[in-house]
Amino acid sequence: MMTEECQQIIDLLHCEYQLFIDETDDKRLLATWQQWREEGEKAGFIPLIIVPDSTLTDMLEEFDPTSFAEDRRQMICEAEKLDAQALFARYPSGDGMTGEFTDTMPNDQFCSWWHDEEQLCKEILLVKIPTRNPWELAAWVPMGGFNSCPSPAEQIAVFRWWYEQYGAIPVAVTHDVWEMSVSRPPQSDEDAEKLANEQFAFCEDIVTQGMESIRALASMLKNAPVWYFWWD
User: Fold this and answer.
1) What pairing do the DSSP bridges indicate for beta strands 168-173 and 46-50?
2) d(CA 196, CA 21)
3) How many CA atoms are closer than 13 Å to the CA of 150, on its beta-carbon side?
């Protein structure tokens, strides 16, 4: 039976969807996402995995389904006025947190739909977002603007920059996480460090509460097909 939180998200987005309940692993979820991704390139939609919970629906309560299309348009228009490089300069720099490169395997695993290391979240949504622009997915699930998490418009601007530079597209969102699939990750230490500084500015928690230094993060980003962002 679908939860109230899941129904609220569906009512807001008004998109075609598939609901995954009590999955024992994520193979079917990822296979369906990949199939929809290939279909969407021709049909004009992008699949997005959403992990519903009460915190996310509380964030979305400010949006009325009858005016949500206009709200999205305004967020996208606001993002078009923003420059990603200027945004990075506004957020914390990694001075004093450079650290050293490490012998770290590139990140290639998604984790946002796992309740813990052994159990998937009970309810997971896969929706078809009707846009050809991956960065606009941040307007469809407008989490953010809390603590150090950038606003939806800022997320859109940054996601567009990373799509243009690295082929990064959002795959999954929760109330405090974005995960992205990357087709052109950095190949050198220098390029990975540049990206790590951008990601630290965008989401400092992945360093301060995660990798502990810019170059440790860069070591994981080099050749990595998956990016993870989490805000406390």
Assistant:
1) parallel
2) 35
3) 28
Say which residue the tokens 């991704």 belong to: 37
Helix axes 152-166, 68-80, angle to 10 degrees: 60
Q: Are 126 and 36 in contact (CB under 8 A)?
A: yes
What burial letters (b/e) apply to 62-93, b meaning 16+ CB within 10 Å? eeeeeebeebbeebbebbeebebeebbeeeee
| Angstrom distance (rounded) from CA 155 to CA 162 | 10
H or E element that contains 21: strand 17-21
Residues 9, 52: contact at Cβ < 8 Å? yes
Q: In whole angstroms, what is the distance from residue 199 CA to residue 191 CA?
A: 12
The predicted model gives 93-115 an average pLDDT of 87
Say if CB 87 and CB 154 are below 8 A apart: yes
Q: What is the pLDDT of residues 5-58, one digit of tens each?
A: 999 999 999 999 999 999 999 999 999 999 999 999 999 999 999 999 999 999
Report which residue type is found at 43.
A
φ/ψ of residue 143, rounded to 5: -85, 165
